[in-house]
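To whoever is on call:

I kicked off a structure prediction for a single chain this morning and the downstream step that reads the tokens threw a length-mismatch warning. I double-checked the sequence; it's 206 residues and nothing unusual in it as far as I can see. Pasting both halves so you can look.
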Amino acid sequence: MSRRDRPRSPVNLDSGGVDVSPEELTAILHGAYSVVHRGGRSQLVKLLKGSRDKRILEFGLDADDSYGALAHLTLDDIAHKVDWAIEEGYLDYYYEWRQPLLMFTERGWKLERPAAIENYYEQFCRDVVDGDMRMAERMIDIKTDVQLDSIELIAQRCDERCLEHLEAWSSKATKRIRKKISWAQRTIRARTADSGSTCIREEGVN
């Protein structure tokens, strides 16, 4: 059988009648953010379990915030809960060639998007504290609207310590992102000039 003639890998959902707590759903959706469009259900299950599977390590998912988030559960239990999230319309899948890849539904993305934006803000704060200028590289494959909303949050909360890092990000960004970063820099300068306050909280960057 040629590669072209190979059948699609089947997807057989089985939630097993499980209950999924709000905290578990949050963990599943947060983990899915790192898997969608490049992996399927099994990869998400292994990520949440904290598996040392080769593909998990190749993608660097062992450094993901959601790595091992459901480690106290068995792989089967996690798989049932992931399938529940698909059955309930938080996640879905589509086929890339013959392999099913996960994707967010509108319902699931509505829940995950604020958490994703908050996560990028916190990463930016850590970069500022650590002197790490790699935010542009971190954001290169992130949706434009998520980048814009992350910059909005930075403008609302950050102080002048952020300006150099925003400039480094801007130097490698698209025109639309550069325009938003320029607005954020002006906003931060104006606010700190008026109040003299410091808006990055230590608890937000540790």
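Update from on-call: the warning came from a stale cache, not from the record. Cleared it. Sanity check on the structure: The two ends are 54 Å apart (CA to CA).
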